[in-house]
Amino acid sequence: MNKPSFPPNFPHRSDEPRPKGLLERAAEVFDFESRLKGENLPPLDIPEGAIPPAPVEAASFAPAEGMTPFAGAPQPVRSPDWTGPAQALDRVAMAEAGYLIPGGLVSGLGEEFRIVKRELLAKMRGTHGYNVVPNGNVILVTSAHPGDGKSFCAINLAISLAAENELEVLLVDGDFAKPSIPQALGIKAERGLMDVLIDPVLRIEDVVVRTDIPSLAILAAGRTNVSDAEQLGSARTDALISSLVAGRPRRVVIFDSPPLLAASVAPMLAAHVGQTLIVVRADTTTETALRDAAGLLGGCANISLLLNGVKFSASGRRFGTYYGKAD
Questions:
Q1: Mean pLDDT calculated for residue range 155-181
Q2: Cα torsion for 13, 16, 17, 23, to the nearest 10°?
Q3: How far apart are CA 132 and CA 45, in angstroms?
Q4: What's this model's pTM, rounded to 2 decimal places?
Q5: Sign of torsion, CA 93 304 228 85?
Q6: Contact of 229 with 271, CB cutoff 8 Å
């Protein structure tokens, strides 16, 4: 009996050897397993420069404590620490002039400035219903006329803010024509803000005067200059003031400026701050003068008023009587 022939794809009998398929026969000729593993492959001949190298991005993370950042890594911007020696405040002279004394007893005047600073801090932090004021930790203290008490209020505000546990305060004397803050506090400063603006080699951290209060530092006005307004309007001033608080959300900078209606410096400084506090002398500052002064502060959108020299409170608020002494 002749053996039947079957089509190539027809199932064969189990007792007969199955013919090898195409892939199996090819495997006897080519070593596919070695090729899949990458073995016995000829070297690739790729012309130099045909495939550009993948770009390497510099790391932007902050190095852990104790680590040295590698060269070329961008570092976070941070304002400098003050390097000058510390000077002691003249607390006797301050007490005689009526200023708040750091670490002194609570008084009515101290309570008043606590209220003032809370409003400023609320705008700076975005609390008590306020939105966060951009650059709100840079504050300008000014007035309409000389004698309204703006330097008195700037010093007391700085001392009150420095009493906060988590804040550091820099009080800047921006009254270049009639500086008064170093003398009022009993400290000596040979150079100040204007010197740094004029001399690009001079570093701000070497000019700031530290005090015996760790959280309070002073920056004097510096040399008198006939072009002080032009210096303040420069890009260097903007960069310098920005550097004072860069990376330091807990640092507050207070500028004591000349009166608005007496010099052109205050409007120039107002363009660099986030909040402005206008000191109004009770029974002295007129409404017209106040409106004219506020109209010059177009560079600052957040303006507050501080009534100074009040002898009568319509609400009957007398903090001093509670502490045994009326102010």
A1: 94
A2: -20
A3: 61
A4: 0.72
A5: positive
A6: no
- Taking residues 293-313, report their average pLDDT: 82
- Here the tokens at position 16 are 């007969």
Q: Which two tokens stand for residue 224?
A: 């008198």
Tokens standing for residue 258: 């000349």
Residue 258: is it exposed, middle or buried by C-beta count within 10 angstroms (0-12/13-18/19+)?
buried
- Residues near 20 by beta carbon (within 8 Å), at least 6 away in sequence: none
Q: Check pLDDT > 90 for residue 131.
A: no
Round to whole Å and give the CA distance between 306 and 281: 8
Cα dihedral 7/10/11/15 (nearest 10): -10
Paired residues of 218 in beta bridges = 171, 209
pLDDT of 301 reads: 81
**Residue 13 CA: distances (Å) to CA of 10, 19, 20, 22, 63:** 10, 11, 15, 20, 74
- Residue 249 CA: distances (Å) to CA of 83, 124, 133: 20, 9, 12
What does the pLDDT read at residue 81? Answer: 84
Domain layout of the chain by residue ranges: 134-310
Bridge-based pairing of strands 216-219 and 209-211 is antiparallel
Hey, which bits of the chain come out as E strands? 86-87, 138-143, 168-173, 209-211, 216-219, 251-256, 275-281, 303-308
Question: How far is residue 302 from each of residues 126, 230, 233, 275, 294, measured CA to CA in Å?
Answer: 13, 24, 20, 5, 11
C-alpha–C-alpha distance, residues 186 and 209, integer Å: 12
Asked whether 289 and 318 are in contact (CB, 8 A), the reply is no
In this structure, the dihedral spanned by the alpha carbons of residues 240, 244, 247 and 251, taken in order and rounded to 10 degrees, is -160
CATH class for the region spanning 134-310: alpha beta
Neighbours of 56 (CB within 10 A): 7
Token pair, residue 1, equals: 């009996």
Q: Are 277 and 121 in contact (CB under 8 A)?
A: no
What are the distances in angstroms from CA 254 to CA 123, 228, 257?
Answer: 15, 18, 9
The tokens for 203 are 């570093």
